[in-house]
Write a structure and sequence with these properties.
524 residues, alpha/beta, Rossmann fold, GMP Synthetase, Chain A, domain 3, five-stranded antiparallel β-sheet, ATP-binding
Length: 524
């Protein structure tokens, strides 16, 4: 068993709105949230008042403890206000992908039994259709304005008293994100007030931030990584969050320059853009002090190339998953020479086992790869309405089996190899798609790449690459790509086929949607 080197932290027995915004009023005019596009600013004092007043309005509208509110929005400065108002009113918040189809949205509404929706006017049609399909939705509010719907601004005019709800942080669900969409049917992940708030406390020793720090929030708040690293953690510590609704390289770089961003929490595709995009040289990024990448594997060579280009310390990584609130490992911001490719060390109060892939009762030692299992206060309460799926994920001793393969070195640094279900088995040899993807990205003519296992005519599973070419690369052939890999890997790891595509399908977190690539292949 591996244990964190940090001292344990006591469980945070507070509702998430108090854990994050408990000191908001005393921070006064310090900017809490800034719209990265138009500069609109919410101070901490305003955020404190607005979320309390909105909680009163939601309670007046009928929101009660135990209700579920669906928050269906891209990143805006209104998103945190809506989230904390809902939890203060006693509701659980299920966050919805802004690009979800009406049917996907309706499935989440039905599964979560959501009674309320907060959305934005450009997404209103999808929200209405989803509500009609699902049934049970009492009202749809909008963050901005739309005829026939009450806006959050309208609700702030309420004179109703602030609700004081008796919340049990250990049992009551604060957030209900949906996970496992890349490997199966999405399931509601029950994250309690305590699990989310305690994870923030666990992160503090290795991820300190405070007034003067400026965080650029471009990864989505609806995803647990964005919710934690870009919303809850900085607001808890008094930092300023600059909000962008989506990633556009020009807007992103301009926001770093204009708002003097100090820390970026990103996913590997953004690291790739910072490394290879020509426009990066046109902006002043000198305010940056740290970049942390998470949500998907980041190749060590790509990370080093990005650090060199920007003149920054090594890019740190973090590791976790929605079911873990989400973080278990992080490269501390103060770490000087973390080993290349590591996703970090265990954060405070967290235990880990590396479990043999062949014998689940065998626990492995330093240097031996196996499935990562985690135990700690950040483990989810379970999957909503799916006790069997919960039992498959969390064993009777409280260990959550992540489905990720990794190994630990002698200093406690974790290295993630790949997903258990994504490993390609070629004639008994294990091939990690992430390793081949990282190699493909070193080719100057390749902008992005993904690898899946396919079966050949001999019924052997072999690696097949999906490649996005750089615009200036000219005509890159299948043979050239295959030869590039073959010259650099063992024979059993060679790519046996290549398909050129316009874009690699990815989840909002940056994870490759291999299932979509398999569907694409079956349709061909």
């Amino acid at each position: 068993m591996f244990r964190s080197e940090y001292a344990d932290v006591p469980a945070v027995e507070e509702p998430i709105h108090d854990a994050v915004l408990g000191r908001a009023a005393e921070r006064g005019d310090t900017p809490a949230l800034i719209d990265g596009a138009d500069g609109t600013t919410l101070t901490y004092a305003q955020l404190d008042v607005f979320h309390r007043r909105l909680a009163a309005a939601l309670a007046e509208a009928g929101v009660r403890k135990g209700d579920v509110l669906a928050l269906h929005s891209p990143n805006t400065i209104a998103f945190p206000t809506a989230f904390f108002a809902a939890t203060r009113a006693g509701a659980s918040v299920t966050t919805v992908h802004p690009l979800a189809t009406p049917e996907e949205f309706a499935k989440q509404l039905r599964d979560s039994a959501a009674s309320w929706i907060v959305t934005v006017s450009p997404l209103l049609e999808a929200a209405r259709e989803a509500a009609e399909r699902a049934g049970g939705v009492r009202e749809i509010f909008v963050c901005d304005s739309a005829p026939g719907h009450r806006s959050l601004t309208d609700l702030l005019a309420t004179t109703a008293p602030e609700p004081h709800i008796d919340i049990d942080p250990a049992e009551d669900v604060a957030a209900l994100p949906y996970s496992s969409g890349t490997t199966g049917i999405p399931k509601g992940v029950m994250l309690t007030h305590r699990s989310i708030a305690t994870n923030l406390a666990q992160l503090l020793p290795c991820m300190p931030m405070g007034p003067g720090d400026r965080i650029l929030a471009v990864l989505p708040f609806f995803h647990i990584y964005g919710l934690t690293a870009l919303m809850n953690a900085p607001l808890r510590q008094g930092a300023t969050v600059v909000v962008l609704p989506r990633f556009d390289i020009g807007t992103f770089l301009a926001a770093i320059e204009k708002h003097r961003i100090t820390t970026l929490f990103v996913a590997p595709p953004i690291v790739l853009a910072l490394t290879k995009h020509p426009d990066v040289a046109s902006y002043d990024l000198s305010s940056l002090k740290h970049i942390i990448s998470s949500a998907a594997p980041l190749d060590a060579k790509l990370a080093a190339a990005c650090s060199r280009r920007l003149g920054l310390p090594p890019i740190g990584q973090g590791y976790g998953m929605t079911e873990l609130s989400p973080c278990t490992h992080l490269v501390p911001l103060a770490a000087e020479n973390p080993p290349p490719g590591t996703v970090g060390r265990l954060i405070a109060g967290t235990e880990m086992r590396i479990v043999s892939l062949d014998d689940p009762d065998k626990h492995l030692d330093v240097g031996e790869p196996g499935e990562i299992a985690i135990r700690g206060p950040q483990v989810m309460k379970g999957y909503l309405g799916r006790p069997d799926a919960t039992a498959q994920m969390i064993d009777p001793e409280g260990w959550l089996h992540t489905g990720d393969v990794g190994h630990v070195d002698g200093d406690g640094w974790l290295f993630v190899v790949d997903r258990v279900k994504e490993l390609i088995k070629y004639k008994g040899f294990q091939v990690a798609p992430a390793e081949l993807e990282a190699l493909l990205l070193t080719h100057p003519g390749i902008a992005d790449a993904a690898v899946i296992g396919v079966y050949n005519e001999d019924n052997n599973e072999v690696p097949h690459a999906y490649v996005v070419c750089q615009q200036a690369a000219g005509d890159l052939s299948e043979g050239e790509v295959m030869m590039y890999v073959a010259e650099r890997v063992a024979p059993y790891k060679r790519v046996r086929g290549v398909t050129f595509i316009d874009a690699v399908p990815r989840a909002a977190s940056g994870k490759i949607l291999r299932r979509e690539l398999r569907d694409l292949r079956e349709q061909a």
